[in-house]
Amino acid sequence: ECPADDMLRREVTCWNEESGCETVLPASEISRHFQCECAHHSVACLKCSATVLCSDICSHLRSDCGAAMRPLRSECEAEPGSREDRASLASLEGTFQRQATEIRACLERITVGIAAHDDRFNELAQGMNAFKEALKQEVAVVTQQSREILTKSVHDITASNQEVQTCCAAQRDAIANFPIIINRLEGTMRDRLVNLTRETREHVTLVAAAIKAEMKEINQTALEKVTEVLRYAQMQVSVCNFIVKSIKALQEEALKNGFADYDHERVYLRGYCLSPGIRLQKDGESVKFCATLTIFQGDMDDFVEWPFQKNIRLSVVRAKDGLKQELEVEGNPGNESYQRPMNSQSKGVSFIDNRLNFTDMITGGFVENDSVHVQWELVP
């Protein structure tokens, strides 16, 4: 069994090979060559029955059948005695018959295949027609639905436009009346603000007066309390510590003038306003160290006892260890200087009868860096 494609690709000679054509082509192309391209077609002369090439038939006829060119020998004119030629012709005829049979079989198979393809094409065409019909129906349904949706949307948009126009008209009227409303509201608010300002001013004035009176009373009470506290605090303070500097200069002044005083600034001790101090008193070739006192008018003179009756304790303190040398003197209530001052201050008092030896203070280390630490105290 020979496939049709192989059969059509098999090379064959032109059917005009006997007429001189030497063309060899695949079987699928030999028919086109024979019909359109081959120049060796022959025809029998009507006068002499000789086989002549078609391209030479005119010349043959003009030459009185044989004068112009030699006619081709036909198969009928072949020598009947040539066995080899007859055998070749028989073999060629058998081959041609076999090829024709094979070509016929291939053509039948091709015909069957074409019929099968026609059936498949028919099925495809029917499927395409069915699909086209279904698609047409679906498009019609979708088109109808889209038309309905579009119609509804147009209706809704029209209704919305009408509502918007109505709302805009109402808003336009409201906007047109808005300046009038604003002016009315502004006038009302202005009147209300004026009244509220007046009421607030009056209320603030009353509150300020009340607060001022109350604060005055509170301040007076607070001042009295503070004064009382300060008075009590001053009544409790009894000690004053101070440093006497340039003590050697005071010593030289005492040796020269007989004494030298150092008065500390005014302080409150036990409620008395006084200035504690010390005196360096010359005693022969040496100097003694004693206490002094000056009483001033003070804020607490009405609350302390007069005449002044406190004793005085005078101490010198050694810086390195706090060791003290001290003396104590008694007050003299009968002394004029111990009475309540009528002027700014009373006359100062020096307690020279009870004193410390300044030389012992120096040797004992109580004088350091040309200064002395003094503790001046009132004792009951």
From TrEMBL:
The keyword Heme does not apply. It comes from the Eukaryota. The keyword Glycoprotein does not apply. Pfam families: TRAF-mep_MATH. Keywords: Receptor. Residues 271-374 form the TRAF1-6 MATH domain. InterPro entries: TRAF-like (IPR008974), TRAF1-6_MATH_dom (IPR049342). This is Putative tumor necrosis factor receptor-associated factor. It comes from Amblyomma sculptum (Tick).
